């Protein structure tokens, strides 16, 4: 998430900020700023929790899926839950169901 936050230009009026709650194992990447000085920009781009030894992807608004990046880094698919899918749909993905 830190690397993704650095992708914005320093001149961009919208900043990407990381929120790391290591005590509760909750992590977010949010966009914050102003567009054209009159439109507020605020939104969660990524939200990941660690629960019961698994990485729960609660929201992924990136072009490149965070789950795929985690797999490329060596995280087994059975340790990743695509929580943005309904529980009954998760069985049809290559990832963990979160049961």
UniProtKB/TrEMBL annotation:
<protein>
    <submittedName>
        <fullName>XisI protein</fullName>
    </submittedName>
</protein>
<dbReference type="Pfam" id="PF08869">
    <property type="entry name" value="XisI"/>
</dbReference>
<dbReference type="InterPro" id="IPR035943">
    <property type="entry name" value="XisI-like_sf"/>
</dbReference>
<dbReference type="InterPro" id="IPR014968">
    <property type="entry name" value="XisI"/>
</dbReference>
């Amino acid at each position: 998430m830190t690397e993704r936050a650095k992708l914005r230009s320093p001149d961009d009026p919208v900043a990407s900020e990381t929120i790391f709650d290591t005590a509760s194992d909750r992590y977010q990447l949010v966009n914050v700023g102003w567009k054209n000085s009159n439109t507020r920009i605020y939104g969660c781009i990524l939200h990941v929790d660690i629960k019961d030894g698994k990485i729960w992807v609660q929201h992924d608004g990136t072009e490149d899926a965070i789950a795929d990046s985690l797999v490329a880094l060596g995280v087994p698919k059975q340790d990743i839950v695509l929580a943005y899918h309904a529980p009954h749909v998760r069985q049809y993905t290559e990832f963990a169901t979160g049961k």
